[in-house]
Automatic annotation (TrEMBL), chain A:
Belongs to the VPS26 family. Transmembrane segments: none annotated. Gene3D superfamilies: 2.60.40.640. This is Uncharacterized protein. InterPro entries: Arrestin-like_C (IPR014752), Ig_E-set (IPR014756), Vps26-related (IPR028934). Coiled coil: none annotated.
Automatic annotation (TrEMBL), chain B:
It comes from Chrysophaeum taylorii. GO terms for cellular component: endosome. Residues 875-911 have a biased composition (Low complexity). The lineage of its organism: Eukaryota, Sar, Stramenopiles, Ochrophyta, Pelagophyceae. Residues 25-84, 873-911 are annotated as: Disordered. One of its GO terms (biological process) is protein transport. It is found in: Endosome. This is Uncharacterized protein. Belongs to the VPS35L family. Residues 37-47 have a biased composition (Basic and acidic residues).
Amino acid sequence: MGDIEHSSLEISLKRVDRIYRPGEMVEGVVVVSARAGWAHKGITMRVSGTVKLQLSQRNVGLFDSASSSIKPREVLRETIEVAPAGRFPDGVTEVPFEFRLGPLVGESLYESYHGVYVNVCYVIGCECRRGVMKAPLEREVEFIVEVPTAATPQPDPRSFSIAPESLDNIRATSLSSIPRFKISGKLHRQNCPVNLPLTGEFVVEESEAQVKSVELQLVRAETVRHAELANSAREATEIQNIQIADGDVTRNLVVPIYMIFPRLFTCPSMATNDFSVDFEVNLIVIFADGYMITENFPIQLHRNR
Amino acid sequence: MADTSRWEFRARDYVRESAEVAVARVGSKTHPLAGTKRGEETRRADDPLMSADDPLSVIGGESGSGSGGSGAHPIEAPAVPSSSSWGLKKQTMVREYLASGCAARALVLVKEIRSSKASSSFGGGDDGFEMLESSQLVERSAARLQQLERGGGEKKSESESESIARLAALHSAMIRHWANDERVAALKVAIQAAKTLGESNKVEEFYPALFAVATEILDNFGRLVYARIAKKEEVNPVEAKETCRNWFYKTACIRELVPRFYVEAAIVRCYAFLSADFPQVLSRLASIARGVGSPLRAAYARAYLALNAPVRGKFAATIVHDTLFQFRGVLKLETPLKLLEPALEMILGSPADVDLGEVLAQYRDYCNDATVLKHIIEAFSHEDVASRAAAIVALAKRAEPSTTSTVDLLGRLGRKFAGAPPPKDQRLAILNEVWKVVTRCNDVGDYVTCATHWLDCLLKHYSDREVRVLLGDVISHVQVATTTTTPNLEDLVQMLIQSKQMLASDHLLKLLDVFRPHRKVEIAKEVLASSSKRRASSSDPATIHAMLEIARVAHDALDSLSPPGERRHVASLVVSFVESVDMGRDLERQLGVYVECRAAFPNLDLVLDRLVLLAANLAMTSKRVATRALRKSADNKSLAERAQHFSKACLAFAHVTIPSVESGFRKLELLSLCGHVALLNNCLPHADTFFKAAVALVPDLPEGDDRLSGFVATFSSSLVLVPGHPDRGPFYLVQGLLNALPRYAHWKTRQCDAYIPLIPLLGAYAQRKLPYSVVDANDVLYGGAPDYLLELKTHLSSLVSNILDHLASLDPASLKRAELVLDLINNLHLVINLEDAGDAKDFARKLLALATKVKHTFPPPLKAYFDHTHALLHNNNNNNNNNHPPQLASAASSSSSSARGAGSSSPNYNK
């Protein structure tokens, strides 16, 4: 007898990181660990990709709760017969499989993404039926789809300059009571590749008040449009906030803006009829006296080919 | 009274005899003084001091294996710090910037850790920073750790000890987490540690120490991460890459700037696994540090990067620039500059990739501070600094003095220039520029330090004229300030003396005159001592002259009231100077120096003594040189002749010097030694003079008859070599000695000991061939002539009767007498045919009877001696064999007084 305690099924993809792009071959093996060997009625593999949208409770009326969940959209469905009916001997058997990654007709593949209201998820499911007397063996595994952006956009750098006059929410009369400051700088690009850091620089040219901290806030906005309700819901979430200057920043010293996009929470910006995912960056300057100013930069994330 | 006229001298075969009495020699494999390492190690195990009860060894053991108390786990011992210099630096930083007494705490800690291991485990025991906290601190740190784990928010302000304790707790927590495979927790702890470096409520004075301790944790963390990924890479490179990337993603999302920077810097080496472009990564990190507002913190952050950077590159320029740029902020915040210095030093550390010109431009624009410039100068190579000499001097003059004064700065510049001089055409201008400032300095200490460095530079790269001018300036400065002590002046004097071109001895002496008399002597002594420590031999006449002057200063300060210890000290210093004189092959000059020295140090016995020895040595050296030359070509006769003349000069020198030596016995020894040297150099009249002088000295010797009798024993060996005088006969020296000995006023008990050794001497004279010789001696000159033998017998007779007289005067029951009697018999047996003439035999038996009377009181060794002697006499009776080898009874005896004699010992000549 083998050492296997329970018969099981595993799906092992050839790529360690399990990242694939549309049009690529997904290759792997189904690993069958059979205890004492048994006959089966074939292994079936199901590959599916779905977009699940949800409306926030806040945006949907209390009485509409039934429709807060929108029917998932299927963008990928594939069924593969991995092995015909037969028998597995005692021990471990590996059954290879492969399929080409492509969307359903009329659909397109989106980047894998796990947000709050938007979820794009790709799953490989596998089932081995073993007749009436035995429970079928099942296994599900997620793989990640990265969709390169069609065309690489121009970097589109942006310069900025913050001074009391440039603030939106200040009345002209109280302007004189605000301590003088001038902060200038630039973002090297507003169209950022998602796998590269956000870069730029800023300079505190002058500031009467002491600076306490300068922070970079990455905000993600998910928008879900509901055709039937003619209703769209937008939800902004802070997904990262890192400090780029600590203490009273040396005047006229160019300080870099540098932030790596967190892998799990970012994806290329997406815009479809049903939903969109957008990102923006806030440069927040906090003064020692507690005042805070914010400069907002919408950014477009893309994935390079 | 014995009639010795019928006694016959025994013919001796010295070679065979010495072979017979020689101790058997066995080759040895070990040297008695060679290390006994293996033995020690095995002993160590049994050594009670080395057992586990030793608190110190317990600490060592514990830090190796982690704490047994908190769940024994194998801890990956953190590797030693990559650069040991940084390890050292770290320790000094902790020591210097931690106000409280750490040593006392460490002791308490030792006890505490042993009794209660509960609080925390101490893993990384290599740098001993765990030693910093005390017992209650350890407990407190544990409490604080709990508080932290509960998320115990903001701390108002911590005392330094609390901070250190907290960091120690973090360190052990980090290692514990890592060992338990809780990597994320370990990372969190590392972040906590790094956070302490960013907290703004810390006392600034304490920051360098905090930095040292916190980075210790980070270093360890970095090593652990690196080791882990490296291990993974061996198995699966793809996975290792992924792990590595993950670490950096985790680091990148640390919210606060300072911990993010430090943690990434701690694991920056791991970028190697991602085959990242190091210069780019380091540049980025360097510029990220700009976000740190506090110049002090920013500087330390950069220092950490500089320490951890696996390669140098463009970033080095960035951190230097940024530090200089932020420098004004340091002044504005009134942070003590002292705190910044360690960081500054590390940042400027090895500026291989930094252009000095750029740095200077930045310095000029942003800093203009003497301390900063000092560190810049120190960091760059001599050549770099020298190539921009003019600019740097201008900057230095303008620099705002802070913890470093302008003069100090200029002094350091001088030191740099000593390593590599400024361009030729600028040298004089630079010196003028510098000295304009320095000469106005009122602080003599600073002035002298600066002048010392520049003197070094001037001696190496400038002409004598500048040196002289500089010394003149120094003298005028120092003379003004004679009231204050000038501790650094010695260095300057030293340097002057060390320098090859010791030209200005007048300046040097003037400098010495600046000191108060007492101080002057002290300095002279220090100079002598340091040059004797260097053990360098000097051949330069100017140097020797200067040293002689200095030594004279030390010598002249001695007077009759000086304590003997002081005299000895000065004497030994002067002696080492005298010995250091080495003119190489110019022996005459060497002798000249000795003559000068004799004139200069008449009060020091030891020096005179040594001069005599050195002169004797010189004579021998000259002989050696001549012999070598003769061996090369036989017609170098004139050279040999010159050598002999020179030897005579040396001997003459010795001859006039010896009488000045105070101790009589020492004089005796020196005379005898010089006599040998004279014989070896074939200077018979000189040898005669020396030996005669030695004999003539005997009556005037001070107390110490044991020394005298010892000397006579040795001297009699020497006399074998001395040929008789053409006019005064073959035995005039022996005769002289026999005359002189009774006139010695301080005889106590050792008179016989002085006479008995002469018996073998007479025996040797009677041989057809002497046991050893250097020149043609009595055996050749008089070889067995009847008159000669007759005279010899007369001498023997008077000698023996002398001895008998003295024996008679001794207490018949004393052991001493019995011993002397035995000595006498044995010596007579050596030289006289006791078998032949009944007279001699009877005489010997009678003598033996004297000893037999008190035989019962003999201690065992003497008893054995007696038995041997007895056997000797009776053996001879039974066996009438002329050629019977004489047995040396004394060889079996423990009393060695008689074993020395012409027959059994030969002087050790330097042939």
